[in-house]
Amino acid sequence: MLTQTSISAPATGPPPFTERRYVLTLIFVTSLFMLWGVGVTMGDILNKHFQEVLHVSKADSALVQLSIFGAYFVMGLPAGWFMKRFGYQKGVLLGLGLYAAGAFLMVPAATALSFGYLRIALFVLACGLATLEAVAHPFLDGLGNLHSSDRRINFAHAINGIGAVSGPLIGGYFVLRGTHATGDLTSVKVLYGLIGAVVGSIGLAFFFVKVPPLIDEPALGTAEDPTDLAADKKLFQHTHFVWACVAQLFNTAAQGGTWAYFINYGTDYMGLKPGPAIQGFWQAGTLFSRTVGLVPGLPHLANDVAAYFFSLSLVGMMLGRFLGTYLMKFIAPNRLLATVAVANIGMCLLVAQHWGWVSFGALIALNFFFSIMFPTIYSLGLKDLGRHKQLASSFIVMGVVGAALFPRFVMGPVADVSVAHAYYLPIICYVVVFLYGAKFYKVQRN
């Protein structure tokens, strides 16, 4: 059994990021974050494509998010039970298998031009994403000193940002570019067939990886270690974990809504003149965009160009996570979380005004500021849970259902009238995230 000294923080300086024996496993687990970054952000590209090819409304197209993020709610607990019984590695293989199966199912669904069948295929794919997410976070937690888990999780989510950036770029090129944006879903069939093949190949490779024993808090849930806070408390008696579930629900609601209508915002507003108060900003932005060839003669951004701006915003999210990983060596994660929540309240207020490039720049900046939110809420919620950690991970993953409900049922009806004004609504979500970072993150010691 591991001793307490084997997981305690060093006397001086930050704890090591990981250990040499975990490097290969860490590379594979971190790559999973990139894979589900592609899978999630691709859904936001499909929103606009389905509006045009299948003739669905903005609000109904958000059923794509309901299918993807609703799977997180359905699959969260089964994934936790599976990994608790069969281990992390088999949990990863299950997730990759479902991911690949869902991608391959997109091919016949696209052939049938059926919005319902497409959503079923996306649901299966997202069950794989949910399984990977439920398994990967506690898996990372055990791949090194437990006191450096915040940094490992934020670093992995920075790599997730590479996948998130790639999703809109790939989707914009294959799905929304030129004639691909009309007529049929041939490009969707080709794209998801390739994704299924890649994911299946990675799963086959991971099957042969030998995972070393982990540094894991469940080993502390024994009579020999009276310091284990989880030994005598039930999971939902840990208030910091309960509030992490709530904060994650609202955080993913804001994130899902921001992404779902990003391309609509670009195509609806960019190119229209704002009020006289910021004419100078608008003219400068228009001059720049025409100089670099982004909007050559178009009254609005084209679909694929808006998708590329979406990808640019996700570059900001990736950079924000790398920066956040570094800053957490000096700034408490909860304080950083509260700070970026306040910043995003300001960004939403700017976006809702639809002041041309000023507001569009704020929309792009939203991703930079909520970059650390998901991984930080996750890592704070898993603190000191000992034997409850795997099940707790599943419940926090279930909070992703916020991204399924908020775009369709809260932002959707407003977006059908005014996409810009729909961005007032995520402010409520960021207030909740701020409260968690400022107060409710604290582990109760009694």
What are the defining features of this structure?
446 residues, mainly alpha, Growth Hormone, Chain: A, globular, disordered N terminus
Please give a structural write-up:
The chain is mostly helical and 446 residues long. The chain has one domain (19-440): MFS general substrate transporter like domains (Growth Hormone, Chain: A). 70% of the residues lie in helices and 0% in strands. The protein is built from 18 helices and no strands. It has helices at residues 23-53, 58-61, 63-86, 88-111, 115-141, 149-176, 186-207, 239-260, 262-269, 279-291, 303-327, 333-352, 356-369, 373-381, 389-398, 402-415, 419-422, 426-440. Helix 1 runs parallel beside helix 6 and helix 12 (333-352) packs antiparallel against helix 13 (356-369). It is globular. The protein starts with 22 loop residues before the first helix and ends in a 6-residue tail after the last helix. Residues 1-11, 217-227, 272-279 and 288-299 have low confidence and may be disordered. It is found in: Cell inner membrane. It is a multi-pass membrane protein. Keywords: Cell membrane, Membrane, Transmembrane, Transmembrane helix. It holds the Pfam family MFS_1. It comes from Hymenobacter ginkgonis.
Q: Any low-confidence stretches, pLDDT <50, length ≥5?
A: 1-11, 217-227, 272-279, 288-299
The helix content is over 70%
Query: What fraction strand?
Result: under 5%
Shape: globular
In quaternary terms, these chains amount to single chain
Q: Architecture, CATH level 2?
A: Up-down Bundle
Radius of gyration: 22 Å
pLDDT average, as an integer?
81
Q: Quote the CATH topology.
A: Growth Hormone, Chain: A
* Tally of individual helices: 18
Q: How many structural domains are formed by the residues?
A: 1
